[in-house]
């Protein structure tokens, strides 16, 4: 009997116009945290705003989807694929930030073991390190048109923001918070200047939320373990909640040096692998891209946001 080839196409489901994995960015004032205790007694904090000012969805570009597939199926970065995406660390047209590719050591970490003294065998064949994960975000000012109101639609093919801008510059005159800014690049001239294009997330750390779906933007009805015996037809939304912010010092050096009015209108989550020797990240990949109308940043202004990454 002749064998038949059957194609099984499985999509990561979502119920919005973008399809697949989706993200939502929420801006507001009065950000605060509500304690929640899970069925095992562990406390987490869910983020709320006193007032929501703006919310909209992003896209996951081609590099973000390839990264997801790499993690799910233990495929090495840019291996076993029809397309090489590359890293933000690479030369133009990439950004050449973070650890240069020639100095990568993450590819040498290809096994799992135990450091607690337990007698477990070493497991090889790890093609993508567990320490390669989404750890921070980028900002830019190329996400809206000249009117500063009309957002430009992100392009699935893009590997970076339209116009990424550094959070901090070594000559911006503001106090620097160690361990918060990465994605370094240096420019040489009469004085060497270091710019930092990636900022780590705020506390609390990213955490998973399962909640009953609601048309209300303010009501959050978290699902507990009674859901497994529930007969409710209300859909459940599952997402990772990420807290991020821009301080009153962020991006000031860039706009001052360019004589431009401070504004931001694009954001993107970034994955990478931390190299402790270089104190920066390897394998930097833009995971998501969000554009909106421009947010002007007057002197002393700061911005708080919650980024939700949905799988359903």
Quantity of strands, as a count? 16
Query: Main sheet?
Result: 8 strands, antiparallel
Provide the succession of SSEs: EEHEEEEEEEEEEHEEEE
- Compute the number of structural domains: 1
Radius of gyration over C-alpha positions, nearest whole angstrom: 21 Å
Oligomerization status of the protein chains: single chain
The structure class reads mainly beta
Alpha carbon gap, first and last residue: 41 Å
- Which percent band covers the strand fraction? 35-45%
| Low-confidence segments | 4-18
What is the helical fraction, as a range of percent?
under 10%
Structure report:
It is built from 2 helices and 16 strands. It is mostly beta strands and 312 residues long. The protein has one domain. The longest helix has 12 residues, at 62-73.
């Amino acid at each position: 009997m002749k064998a038949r080839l059957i194609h099984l196409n499985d999509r990561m489901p979502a119920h919005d116009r973008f399809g697949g994995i989706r993200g939502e960015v929420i801006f507001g004032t009065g950000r605060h945290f509500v304690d929640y205790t899970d069925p095992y007694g562990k406390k987490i904090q869910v983020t709320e705003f006193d007032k929501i000012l703006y919310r909209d969805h992003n896209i996951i570009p081609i590099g973000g989807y390839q990264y997801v597939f790499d993690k799910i199926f233990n495929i090495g970065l840019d291996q076993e694929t029809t397309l090489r995406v590359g890293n933000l660390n690479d030369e133009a047209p990439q950004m050449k930030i973070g650890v240069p590719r020639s100095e990568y050591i993450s590819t040498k970490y290809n096994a799992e073991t135990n450091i607690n003294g337990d007698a477990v065998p070493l497991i090889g064949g790890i093609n993508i390190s567990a320490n390669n994960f989404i750890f921070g975000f980028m900002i830019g000012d190329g996400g809206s048109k000249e009117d500063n109101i009309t957002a430009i639609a992100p392009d699935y093919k893009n590997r970076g923001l339209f116009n990424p801008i550094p959070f901090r510059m070594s000559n911006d005159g503001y106090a620097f918070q160690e361990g918060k800014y990465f994605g370094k690049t240096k420019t040489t001239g009469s004085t060497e200047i270091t710019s930092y294009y990636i900022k780590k997330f705020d506390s609390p750390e990213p955490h998973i939320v399962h909640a009953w779906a609601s048309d209300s933007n303010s009501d959050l009805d978290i699902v507990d373990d009674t859901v497994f015996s529930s007969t409710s037809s209300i859909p459940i939304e599952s997402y990772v909640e990420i807290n991020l912010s821009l301080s009153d010092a962020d991006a000031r050096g860039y706009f001052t040096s360019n004589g431009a009015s401070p504004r931001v209108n694009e954001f993107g989550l970034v994955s990478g692998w931390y190299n402790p020797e270089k104190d920066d990240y390897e394998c930097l990949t833009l995971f998501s891209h969000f554009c909106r109308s421009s947010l002007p940043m007057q002197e002393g202004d700061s911005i708080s946001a919650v980024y939700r990454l949905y799988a359903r």
